[in-house]
TrEMBL record:
Any Pfam family: DIE2_ALG10
Main location: endoplasmic reticulum
EC numbers: 2.4.1.256
Protein name: Dol-P-Glc:Glc(2)Man(9)GlcNAc(2)-PP-Dol alpha-1,2-glucosyltransferase
Membrane topology per record: Multi-pass membrane protein
Family (UniProt): Belongs to the ALG10 glucosyltransferase family.
Amino acid sequence: MYCHLYGCKPALRSTTASAMWIWAALLGHLCCLAPWAFVMRQVEPYMDEIFHIPQAQKYCQGQFAEWDPKITTFPGLYLSSTFIRGFTGIFCGKDFLRLENVVYALGAHVVMYRLLRRSLEPQRAAAQSLLLSLYPIHFFFQALYYTDVGSLFWTLLTHDLATPVPKKVLPGRLHMCLAAASGCAAVLFRQTNAVWVMFTFGIAALQDLQSSKWGDELLRADISPSVLLTFCKALILESPRLLARLGPLLVPVLLFVGFVVQNGSIVVGDHSNHQVAVHWAQLCYLVAVTAGTSGFGSTSALSPSCFKIFGSDVSKRPRAFILALALVTALLHRYSLAHPFLLADNRHYTFYIWNRFLRRPWFKELLAPGYVYAGWYCWRRQSLAQSGLWVLIWSVAAVLTLVPAPLLEPRYWTTPVLMAHLYAHEVPDRNDRRMMSLSSTFIAGVAFMLVNIMTLGIFVYRPFAWPSGEVARFMW
């Protein structure tokens, strides 16, 4: 009778439908991942695993004072493995350690679904979260004992806990404290997550201000001097209230800054091979990957309609296009770096991309028009769903995490790529558009899985031997 009078049945049905769709998506994810987790048993610890697995096993045995100086990250991954086992030291073999990333991958899937449900209905959120979980670079490392998957999980969880639901107030103190704890875990997995914790701080503050008296100006899709001035003014005037609520998020950031000051470097070990650089070409790679993984629908980067809109924009602002093209060409020419690891290690696909294409005289510069188009597409796609300030905050976070990195490493793009996709989506208003969107997601998912089958299949079943006799495998 109570539900009949007050209308709780639709809410119950909505909750049931939401649970059904996310369980279906998780089952699909697990069905795609489980075979690879099984066949990976025949692969001995490889690449970074030769550092991570022995270090985790030392922690499992309580040997916390022993540390491999070649490890560059904080011990978050090893502490997590030890904590999961209750400090018992059992089940610390490579296969059990690798299974932890399966759990983290499913956890990241759930958090992505939660973020998508803020603006999408259950079936679309489930389909999109499954698609993002199959993103090839992310999916590849779900079967290995690397820091990437756990790093992504804690970063997304921090974002989910700290950012408000659209048109709602900021989460309460408990949520913020939990977000700060999750942020600490994220930084313990990977140092650059301190930037993404600050990204969460910025987005939470922006969303709060957009629902206040400042909203009309801050919701604009463009970034003009007046918008930036209003945003800065709002931050200053509202800072006491924002810091009182969002302040806990600054704890992991300040702790990380203290470590950098004391350590003299961002990385924990192997300082000589991980020096800070100026690598602006990383942003070109990022927008290319983000645009290239946007799907295959009517709004994808490869759709004729997007090319037509781009051509129209160029014809309206030819000087802006020429300036952007000149700037990108200059940055590619001057700031496309080749780390010694990239040049020497033929186990990575990037080794062949660089040596056969990007290192050729003027080849990388010839790609400048494509990068300009990809950048235009990413900006337009994000600004259709979010404000221009959101895109600016995301861009600053991407610059701070990628540009200082001298190594061309696809794993570094995962967090900004997935964060962009989580916030850029078309909200259909008719059944035909909904079906088109779901079919586009299905086609993209099939394409992702074909790439995953190819890359993981080559990794497992097509090893090769170095001149020394050591077994080598191709990977991202």
